[in-house]
Design goal:
Elements: E1 2-5, H1 6-11, H2 13-21, E2 30-37, H3 56-70, E3 75-82, H4 89-92, H5 103-118, E4 124-128, H6 159-177, E5 180-184, H7 190-199, E6 210-214, H8 217-220, H9 229-232, E7 237-242, H10 259-272, E8 276-281, E9 284-285, E10 288-289, H11 296-307, H12 313-325, H13 329-347, H14 363-380, H15 384-395, H16 399-424, H17 428-433, H18 438-467, H19 474-492, H20 504-520
């Protein structure tokens, strides 16, 4: 299955043909269109909802996509992730807000049925759950509802009960319409994974369901383990989703080529369940397509591994690289593998995601992601090394943390430089005939690493200053901020302009937010390690 954002199909309709024209074998049997709102295509004629109208533009894009895919004998799924009720619905119908009555779940079932009726060619309805307030992310579960008029209301519904009711309502509508139903099990934190597992523990055999898992829990982080549902619910139907090295690993501008990682995850999934029925792949993210970039090897790997998950990946690499680089294929492969090692080290420093959707992060973003995902990482991978590393990076960074940050980025920069040197050693005709922007990607990676090292050093020194404001850390921190400001000025002067992944505005946002935090954040004390 190809998973493609709806906005990409609307803005770049030719990309669908480009992807489907790629020789993909089994992988192209499905196209999944994702990023939709549960209620945007449901007219809800039985309910008076002020201002609620069907999104005709989205509906038309889906209809055209279904027609184009069906003409190629490719089935289509639509995935929704925004699940909040239409504005004004609960005010107009207060009874829906009491989830004990079951009325709201009937509304959900009715809405999905209306969507399927409006799109008779749609083959599957899909949902993801953990990125739409007030559903299980920053807000309390179903924060827009009450659980009965009194605290003692009976029966009490736990979050897993509510989630089960939501998913089964959607699945019933799919069963009635003769369509399949899938759930993307993406979660940010372990407690969400646990709630989802509890909700699926007694799933009825007669309701359609396929669980689609990101290749790692926690949203495409190569350091994290696979989703626990693969092992805890092996009797259900499963699929595995790969991101193509786009969203958090360079958007294709910076190469992240990972056939070996893909093979490891597929083989492990087979170890957990005999019902691994689908392999999904994202060749497009937002306004980026990996075709024509080094990351295209990930697509070639997905195609090959779908046919034979246990084949030798060196042969897979060469089969992809030879048409591009000829006799220089082994050298180009070595360069891309060096770049992947550098990417893996700094884009996910310490196992936590320290990039903003592949771009340099702002300070507030970096601090939030490092701490929140760091806590999740400790729960998912509570090894002594992980706990010690995150303690030193996030809680009480000492001189060792500063040294290791320098060494990590120096090692990553050296790996990227080695990759560039290997590429530069190729004969010029082999270097230019590939058509892949490998050299530019390595240059961008090196610049990203250089700026990111200072950002991480600034985070560590800020934390040290808050713990010991009299410890003399402030001058060192100001020096790092001055270096970041100078780097931003150099990026602003670049001609041609630099990539959005290292845009000078992002660097200036980081320094502005850190200085604001420095002025507003009181010093805190940290307890000694246990």
């Amino acid at each position: 299955m190809y998973s493609i954002p709806a906005v990409a199909l609307a803005d770049h309709p030719d990309w669908l043909d480009r992807v489907l024209d790629y020789p993909t074998g089994q992988l192209s049997r499905w196209v999944q269109v994702h990023h939709g709102h549960l209620f945007e295509l449901a007219p809800l004629p039985r309910w008076s909802v002020p201002g609620h109208v069907v999104n005709a533009q989205r509906q038309e894009v889906l209809r055209r996509t279904i027609e184009r895919c069906h003409a190629r004998r490719v089935r289509v799924a639509w995935m929704v992730g925004k699940l909040t009720p239409p504005a004004g619905l609960l005010a107009a119908h207060p009874a829906l807000a009491d989830l004990h009555t079951g009325a709201y779940w009937l509304l959900v079932e009715e809405a999905v049925g209306e969507i399927l009726a409006a799109l008779p060619g749609l083959d599957e309805f899909s949902v993801y759950l953990f990125e739409s307030p007030p559903f299980l992310d920053a807000h309390h579960f179903f924060g827009g509802f009450h659980h009965g008029s009194e605290a003692s209301a009976w029966p009490y519904l736990a979050p897993a009960d509510l989630l089960r009711a939501l998913l089964q309502a959607m699945s019933r509508a799919c069963r009635r319409a003769g369509r399949s139903f899938s759930v993307l099990t993406h979660v940010w934190y372990p407690f969400q994974e646990q709630i989802l597992a509890a909700a699926l523990g007694d799933w009825p055999d007669d309701l359609p369901l396929l669980l689609e898992h990101n290749y790692s829990t926690g949203d495409f982080n190569p350091h994290l383990p696979e989703n626990a549902l693969l092992a805890s619910r092996p009797h259900l139907r499963h699929g595995l989703l790969f991101c193509g090295g786009l969203e958090y690993a360079g958007l294709g501008e910076i190469p992240f080529c990972c056939p070996e990682l893909m093979q490891e995850r597929i083989a492990s999934a087979w170890d957990h369940t005999p019902r691994l029925e689908r392999l999904s792949f994202r060749p497009i993210w937002e306004d980026r397509c990996l075709l024509g970039t080094p990351n295209e090897v990930n697509l070639a790997a997905a195609v090959a591994l779908a046919a034979n998950p246990w084949q030798d990946t060196d042969g897979l690499w060469l089969a992809w690289a030879r048409p591009h680089f000829g006799a220089g294929a082994p050298a180009a492969i070595a360069a891309l593998q060096e770049a992947a090692a550098a990417n893996l080290a700094v884009f996910f420093q310490g196992g936590t995601r320290t990039n903003d959707h592949s771009a340099l992060p702002g300070f507030d973003y970096l601090r939030s992601r490092a701490f929140n995902y760091g806590k999740a990482l400790i729960e998912w991978q509570p090894t002594p090394r992980v706990k010690q590393d995150l303690w030193e990076m996030l809680i009480a960074p000492g001189d060792r943390a500063l040294r290791r940050n320098r060494e990590l980025h120096a090692g990553a920069e050296a790996a990227a430089a080695r990759a560039g040197a290997v590429l530069a050693a190729l004969p010029s005709d082999l270097r230019t005939s590939s058509g892949l922007p490998l050299g530019q990607g390595l240059d961008l990676l090196r610049e990203w690493i250089r700026v990111h090292r200072r950002q991480m050093e600034a985070l560590l020194r800020w934390r040290r200053h808050t713990l010991a404001p009299e410890g003399g850390e402030l001058p060192e921190l100001e020096q790092v901020l001055a270096q970041l400001d100078a780097g931003a000025a150099a990026l602003e002067a670049a001609d041609p302009p630099v990539s959005p992944l290292i845009a000078p505005a992002r660097v200036r946002r980081f320094t502005t937010e850190l200085r604001r935090a420095l002025a507003a954040t009181p010093a805190t004390e940290v307890p000694p390690p246990p």
